[in-house]
TrEMBL record, chain A:
UniProt protein name: ABC transporter permease
Keywords assigned by UniProt, alphabetized: Cell membrane, Membrane, Transmembrane, Transmembrane helix, Transport
One BP term from GO: transmembrane transport
Organism per entry: Tardiphaga robiniae
CC terms in the record's Gene Ontology section: plasma membrane
Family: Belongs to the binding-protein-dependent transport system permease family.
């Protein structure tokens, strides 16, 4: 297993390098001279200032050398400098990452927990009104655009009912400490986490339901019945465990996209995470920051993929680490 | 019989859904299972034999309904039980072994855990005692290295070991009745012989009543005390093994027994003087599974210096157990996969040296008939399209090709109206005829039949074999016939090559091979064919 992990990490580093190189050339493909854009945004346009900027960001050097400088920077965790925010990119991202991880992991947990629970229930009562109710609402959550759900829940829970705060990570000027702080953040977390969570929950519900109905028909379930086992043990131990394999695969694919995928939700709820940072960087043509976010998101995808593979090998003994 | 039955099925009627071909899956069946006796329920697919078995366990599918009848066990009618009542009986009173041990075991649970579940289901013993019991059961059914086996997952065991584990599980609570639903059908012939012996021994030592479901008369001859022949859900004949085999009363039983291929090959003229249709010289093929960066690759040699030839008009059989490499050789000969080394000549052309267009131009000369008549026909295409695809690709005018398809259907015994139908509208035997017509449409010189009759019922199998023989004679074809069934091989092959682990260990004229097998593996295979010791020798 260790060799498997080592092997995957080495491969991951190569993939990440390839992504960095691609990202690097991506920015060079954009029309215009980055230095001129930066100078323009700074309100100065004289040739000397632009030349200074070029030198500062090594834009005057040949492309391969620039690439080398950039890659060298990334390897030492230096993702460059955000001209707009006047801060090192790495620092900006490091500040925002915890908020994003808190949001997306909570959403992920909610979606898996609820999705598998509802999927199991729907499969158990397949063909009844309970099944119909679950599958129809799952479809509804799946089909409704995330930002609309977000806006409507703000209207309902913040504006009309006043139960939950409508934006931000914590109450501005609240200065809570200890448990009061945890509670404050948790309240702020509810709506954005549910907004993302419900969407993914819908896919897990449907996947779990379909997969359970399929597994139910397999021979070993009949064997389990022939042993005289109680139905709830059969459902849990034999049906659900096998039915979860495709759900794990799907969740693995989703988990990678969670970091960068929260752009809409973070924007609507003014959640100070990576997604909103990306959104701002886009609007402000903050190329270094944009690149930095890409690199971090790619690294996250690779890490989550590795974790998924490990989890998959844990739940399915048929997959060997060597292959 | 004077002994009290362990279970009595009385006048059982199981209704099929309205859309089915007949109203009853099981129609008025009565069977007594007596302690210490093995009753074989035989019949072809759709005869209702599995339904009887499942009715004994209360495991009938939801789509069917028990209309009348009783299943009497320990003084109660099982059919009146509710789910919790059934749970008491299952495993403890009546246990079951299924056909396919790979799918009948949960792939995510260790063998030992699955055995221990048996005790857990009935709240018996402590977890520690359950483990000890699982270990002793594993020993009792002859699993090697039981300590390791009970910690293993199903995929880490061989087919025979998995079936032993299933049997151990079924016997855990010492049931008085064992229901075995085709327990050896998915196994190789030598493994089958071992499992049959195991079931026999356990049944004797525990004085169990056994209901053994099978379609194979050879197996019946080896294991049954009493036989029940089912057809369309009704019992057509019933009696002791001797009576039914020596003196079958019903025409259907007679036909079934007659359809079992004999172990005595007919006399065949030597074809050595004919020109060579196919010549295979020194074929090597090794499958390499990448072991990753830090582990060595896994290698399986599917063909090792395989050399043989097929004369014009000759049928050469390739026999061996699963994994012996016979299907790989078939695919190598057809160049569906590439050999590592070696030559395949068709007539005077070196097939292994051709590439691209030149290779495609020769492909029609050697055509294949596959094992699974369901998976080998594209379900979304009409029969006409399926048969004419090849000829049209070769440049035949579509109208001419369609006319030829019509003729071919007649030749394989189907009516021309079949052209507009889809594969699912045909039975297994009919589909295999379609597969034959598809192969013949290419005007081949050589037919490769890969287990072409293995999935068919014995009576249908006999018909398809006869058809193949007729067509071969009529069209002057040569044939490479791959099978695991030595009875079939005896009847259809001029010469037989026995394969073991990628090597041809013996290649001889059929009669000679059966009369004086030389290689130990050939002897082992021949010895394991079921039904040789039967009263009537099954033929």
């Amino acid at each position: 297993m260790l060799s498997f992990v080592a092997q995957r990490i080495v491969k991951g580093v190569f993939v990440l390098l390839a992504i960095i190189v691609m990202n690097f050339f991506l920015i060079r493909l954009a029309p215009g001279d980055p230095a001129a854009v930066m100078a323009g945004e700074a309100g100065a346009s004289d040739e000397q200032f632009v030349q200074q900027l070029r030198e500062k960001f090594s834009l005057d050097k040949p492309l391969p050398e620039q690439l080398f400088i950039y890659v060298k920077g990334v390897v030492t965790l230096d993702l460059g400098f955000s001209f707009r925010q006047q801060m090192p990119v790495a620092k900006l991202i490091a500040e925002r990452l915890p908020a994003t991880l808190l949001l997306t992991l909570t959403a992920f947990g909610i979606s898996l927990l609820l999705g598998i629970t509802f999927g199991t229930l729907a499969a158990r009562f397949a063909g009844t009104w309970a099944d119909t109710a679950i599958t129809v609402s799952a479809l509804l959550f799946y089909a409704t655009p995330i930002f609309w759900v977000a806006l409507m829940s703000i209207l309902l829970f913040s504006v009309y009912l006043g139960w939950l705060p409508s934006f931000g990570y914590e109450t501005v000027g609240g200065n809570f400490t200890g448990w009061a702080h945890v509670k404050d953040v948790a309240l702020h977390l509810v709506m954005p986490a549910m907004t993302i969570g419900l969407f993914f929950m819908a896919t897990y519900t449907r996947m779990t339901r379909a997969s359970m109905l399929e597994v139910k028909r397999l021979d070993f379930v009949k064997t389990a019945r022939a042993k005289g086992l109680r139905d709830n043990i059969i459902q849990r131990r034999h049906v659900l465990r096998n039915a979860l394999l495709p759900v794990v695969t799907l969740a693995g694919v989703h988990s990678g996209t969670l970091v960068g995928g929260a752009v809409l939700t973070e924007t609507v709820f003014a959640w100070p995470g990576i997604g909103r940072l990306l959104y701002e960087a886009l609007l402000q043509r903050d190329y270094n920051l944009l690149l930095g976010v890409f690199v971090v998101c790619s690294a996250m995808v690779l890490i989550f993929n590795l974790v998924t593979d490990l989890v998959y090998r844990l739940v399915d003994p048929r997959i060997e680490f060597a292959s | 019989m004077t002994a009290t039955p362990a279970v009595s099925i009385k006048n059982l009627k199981i209704a099929l859904p309205k859309s089915a071909e007949r109203p009853y899956a099981v129609d008025g069946v009565s069977i007594d299972l007596i302690p210490g006796e093995i009753v074989c329920v035989v019949g072809e697919s759709g005869s209702g034999k599995s339904m009887c078995a499942h009715a004994l366990m209360g495991l009938l599918p939801d789509t069917v309904k028990t209309e009348t009848g009783e299943v009497l066990f320990e003084g109660q009618n099982l059919l009146k039980l509710d789910e919790s009542g059934w749970r008491e009986v299952r495993g403890r009173g009546i246990a079951m072994v299924f056909q396919e041990p790979m799918t009948a075991l949960n792939p995510l649970m260790r063998i030992g855990e699955q055995m221990m579940e048996m005790f857990e289901a009935h709240n018996l013993l402590t977890p520690k005692e359950r483990r000890a019991k699982a270990l002793s059961l594993a020993k009792e059914v002859g699993l090697p290295d039981p300590e390791r086996i009970i910690r293993a997952y199903p995929h880490q065991l061989s087919g025979g070991q998995r079936q032993r584990a299933m049997i151990a599980m079924a016997l855990a609570l010492e049931p008085s009745v064992l229901v075995a639903d085709e327990p050896t059908t998915a196994l190789d012939v030598t493994t089958q012989a071992q499992i049959l012996k195991l079931i026999r021994n356990l049944q004797r030592s525990r004085n169990m009543a056994v209901m053994f479901i099978t379609h194979d008369f050879g197996v019946v001859a080896d294991i049954a005390d009493r036989v029940v022949v089912l057809r369309h859900g009704k019992i057509v004949e019933e009696g002791s093994i001797d009576a039914v085999f020596r003196n079958p009363q019903h025409d259907y039983t007679k036909a079934l027994l007659a359809a079992v291929p004999s172990m005595h090959p007919p006399v065949r003229a030597s074809l050595d003087e004919n020109a060579k249709a196919v010549e295979v010289i020194g074929l090597d093929k090794t499958y390499v599974t990448s072991g990753g960066w830090f582990k060595p690759d896994r290698r399986v040699q599917a063909a090792n210096e395989v050399t043989f030839s097929i004369m014009q008009g000759e049928t050469v059989g390739l026999v061996g157990e699963s994994g012996s490499g016979k299907s790989s050789v078939a695919r190598l000969v057809m160049r569906l996969i590439e050999a590592d080394r070696g030559t395949v000549r068709i007539g005077d052309i070196d097939l292994t040296a051709l590439e691209g267009k030149a290779l495609r131009a020769q492909r029609h000369r050697i055509q294949m008939i596959f094992q699974d008549p369901f998976a080998s026909l594209n379900p979304r295409r009409r029969v006409g399209q399926i048969i004419t695809d090849g000829p049209i690709a070769r440049g035949t005018d579509p109208k001419v090709a369609m006319q030829r398809a019509r003729d071919l259907l007649g030749m394989v015994g189907l009516d021309a109206g079949s052209l507009d139908r889809y594969p699912h509208e045909f039975s297994g035997g009919q589909r295999q005829r379609l597969g034959i017509a598809r192969a013949l449409a290419m005007d081949p010189e050589i037919i490769v039949a890969d287990e072409a009759v293995s999935a068919l019922d014995v009576s249908v199998q006999a018909q398809v074999l006869k058809l193949l023989e007729d067509l071969k004679a009529r069209l002057g074809l040569s044939m490479l016939f791959i099978t695991h069934d030595l009875r079939v091989a005896a009847q259809i092959c001029d010469r037989i090559a026995v394969m073991q682990r990628g090597v041809i260990v013996e290649l001889k004229p059929t009669a000679q091979l059966f009369a004086s097998p030389e290689h130990p593996y050939t002897r082992e295979l021949l010895g394991a064919v079921p039904g040789q010791s039967s009263p009537s020798q099954a033929a």
